[in-house]
Write a structure and sequence with these properties.
The complex is a heterodimer of chains A (185) and B (52). Chain A has 185 residues and is mainly α. Helix content of chain A is 70%, strand content 0%. Chain A has a single domain, classed as Bromodomain-like (Up-down Bundle), CATH 1.20.1550. The longest helix of chain A has 28 residues. By secondary structure, chain B is mainly alpha-helical. Chain B has one domain. In chain B, 77% of the residues lie in helices and 0% in strands. The longest helix of chain B has 22 residues. Chains A and B meet through helix 2, helix 3 and helix 5 of A and helix 1 and helix 2 of B.
Chain lengths: 185, 52
């Protein structure tokens, strides 16, 4: 597989992860559906998958970088599957709004499994492994910036949602904002 | 608080992957994974009434 194509696939993977995080944020802000602890872990592991792609772009393609993304996707699958099982009984409305017939955690499980499949396929094309990385273009730099920015926004969102205490199991309000508003004279 | 720490860890991993040395990034990644699993084990306490 040509090196330019491998780089492009890594950039596209980063954009795909950013899109998933943007969808999660959109649902959080537009529908006021705050993420539960399991949802936050699934989001965090989407961010984690991005680390392998960034390493590929910055340090060159290596099997170990793909392994990190696969590890993150496996952990994500574990958490998303647990979340599905919590709501699998008939009559359970699930957590949050369903998008295209499935809840976010179900989509997350599908995406993690698909990512494992694609990353495993990419490991077959190992001729470019260990090669020097190409110079980062605008599209690649933007993809990295976006992934880092969305992870930073998740930090901010979590601070606003949980304050500096324990996060609620079924969050409905931004606890830190509530606390600050109460302090205002 | 644990979730803030979790996200800060992953943010550090991404920044390290972008600007830092490769070895440090991989080490931080594995530490963040352990934190993630510990947090999951802490929160996955509800008994599932399912049989497999």
């Amino acid at each position: 597989m040509p090196a330019a194509l491998v780089q492009m696939l890594n950039v596209l993977a980063l954009y795909a992860i950013s899109s998933l995080l943007i969808v999660a944020f959109s649902m959080q802000l537009a529908l006021n559906e705050l993420p539960c602890p399991l949802c936050m872990m699934q989001r965090a592991l989407f961010c984690a998958m991005g680390a392998g792609f960034i390493l590929n772009l910055v340090h060159g393609t290596r099997a170990s970088h793909y392994a990190l993304s696969i590890l993150a996707a496996l952990l994500g699958t574990l958490i998303a599957d647990r979340h599905i099982l919590l709501h699998i009984l008939p009559g359970d409305p699930g957590y949050g709004t369903a998008v295209a017939g499935m809840h976010y955690y179900t989509w997350a499980a599908v995406v993690y499994l698909f990512a494992i499949f694609v990353l495993t396929l990419l490991l077959i094309f190992d001729r470019n492994f260990g090669s020097r990385p190409a110079k980062l273009g605008l599209m690649a730099s933007t993809a990295i910036w976006l992934a880092v920015l969305l992870t930073a926004l998740n930090v901010l969102s979590t601070v606003l949602m949980c304050g500096f205490g324990a996060c609620p199991d079924d969050p409905t309000r931004y606890l830190l904002i509530d606390k600050l508003l109460k302090l205002r004279p | 608080m644990q979730f803030i720490l979790l996200y800060v860890m992953w943010l550090t991993v991404l920044l390290s992957a972008w600007k830092g040395p490769r070895g440090l990034t991989i080490t931080l990644f594995l530490v963040a994974c352990v934190l993630n699993v510990a947090l999951f084990a802490h929160h996955a306490t509800t008994k599932l009434n399912l049989s497999f």
